[in-house]
Design a protein that fits this description.
single chain; 34% helix; 3 helices; alpha/beta; 5 strands; five-stranded mixed β-sheet
Length: 143
């Protein structure tokens, strides 16, 4: 780029500068760009939408899945056999090393104290179970 610092020596005429000074244009564009970058995420996050309602997805019961039931008295059952907390943990440790690791489905009584369900979840975590699901009744949507 060439720079014009003034008229040549000996000429008393002012020359007309035909080049456009783009420095203010670049400054304004950078300020606008920064403003748009800051305001666009705020605008996109404030859009009012109605989220879909919760839906229960039917689970496919596979023979390798483990079903653990907890009744209203916090008794724990492995399929249909009642087990203690220690026996539950040892069985879960045996299952956790299987490849592929089966899912654990917990069926908790609606009117029971959920301390039993919490014990099952803690035992699953201690045994290293990756997938835990809760079995529920589907919502009756008929009118």
């Amino acid at each position: 780029m060439a720079m014009n610092v003034g008229p040549a020596e000996g000429s008393d005429e002012d020359e007309v500068v035909s080049a456009i000074n783009t420095t203010p244009l670049v400054d304004v564009m950078l300020v606008l760009l920064i403003i748009f970058l800051i305001t666009i995420p705020v605008v996109t996050q404030s859009i009012q939408v109605q989220l879909p309602n919760e839906r229960n997805i039917a689970t496919q019961t596979k023979p390798e899945n483990v079903v653990i039931a907890v009744d209203s008295n916090a008794n724990i059952y492995w399929n249909t056999t009642r087990v203690s907390n220690d026996e539950l943990l040892s069985r879960l440790k045996e299952v956790s090393v299987m490849v592929p690791q089966p899912e654990v489905h917990i069926r908790g009584d609606q009117f029971g104290d959920y301390e039993g369900v919490g014990k099952v979840v803690v035992a699953c975590q201690r045994a290293g179970i990756v997938k835990i699901g809760f079995i529920t009744e589907p919502v009756n949507q008929g009118g």
